[in-house]
Amino acid sequence: MDVVDEVLERHSADVVAKPDYALSSAGGSIIPHLTFLDFAVQMKPRFLGRLGLKHLIPANPQVEKRAIKAIQPDVHAGSCWAMQGDHGQIGIQLARAIIVTEVTIEHVDPRITLHYGSAPREMEIWGLASSQKATLLTTIEYKYAEHECKQPKLVQSFQIPLQKQNVVSTGVVVRVNSNWGYPAFTCLYRIRVHGFESTLGGL
């Protein structure tokens, strides 16, 4: 068993109980040119010195939440990738070339988040072949609104239609078309990609 297999097996014991080929510690990584901008937090200017001797220190945008957060197992409140605006995308290089069969999206409990509407809503899942050819695998909706006084399911898995399970993907793009109503940024806490290795080769 090599290192990738060992890490995939170790983390398959989480709530999903399936290997996650997007997981950063197993070899998954972010594809920068297919990933939107991080949300930059604007810091307030500071004054240095006592009265009469104050000097204004300009504030620079501070990026706190990098895209790599979306493929790491930490899903504590605030530990997410925040992308600018209510739509965008993230490109993920998978640990192995696989037939993608399922994608799992996880968000934090709405009772402990400061920005309820920042959860993703309507999304597209695209598979990337080794030639960087993109194939739309499915469209999904992450259910986050409360219905009938019930809390939403935080970990939601979406199956790829069988007719699309013939595409060998070396990466995926998760394109967020809308969130639950927060215009400043959208938070992606964790994205898992499941599937199986194939001998078909990239398309």
> What summary fits the major beta sheet?
7 strands, antiparallel
Structural class: mainly beta
Secondary structure tally, helices: 1
What is the CA-atom radius of gyration, in angstroms?
A: 19 Å
Mean pLDDT: 83
The rounded distance between the terminal residues' Cα atoms is 27 Å
Q: Secondary-structure element sequence?
A: HEEEEEEEEEEEEE
Low-confidence stretches: none
Number of strands: 13
Shape: globular
Query: How much helix, percentage-wise, in residues?
Result: under 10%
Q: How much strand?
A: 35-45%
Summarize the SSE layout with pairings.
Layout: H1 3-11, E1 29-30, E2 40-42, E3 46-48, E4 55-57, E5 61-63, E6 81-84, E7 88-106, E8 122-128, E9 134-141, E10 155-159, E11 168-176, E12 185-188, E13 190-197
Antiparallel strand pairs: 1-7, 2-5, 3-4, 6-12, 7-10, 7-11, 7-13, 8-9, 8-11
Could you please describe the fold and organization of this structure?
The radius of gyration is 19 Å and the shape is globular. The longest helix is centred in the N-terminal third of the chain and has 9 residues, at 3-11. It has one helix and 13 strands, in the order αβββββββββββββ. The strands form four sheets. Strands 1, 7, 8, 9, 10, 11 and 13 form a seven-stranded antiparallel sheet that branches. A two-stranded antiparallel ribbon has the order 2-5. The protein has a two-stranded antiparallel ribbon with strand order 3-4. It has one helix spanning 3-11; strands at residues 29-30, 40-42, 46-48, 55-57, 61-63, 81-84, 88-106, 122-128, 134-141, 155-159, 168-176, 185-188, 190-197. The chain has 203 residues and is mostly beta strands.
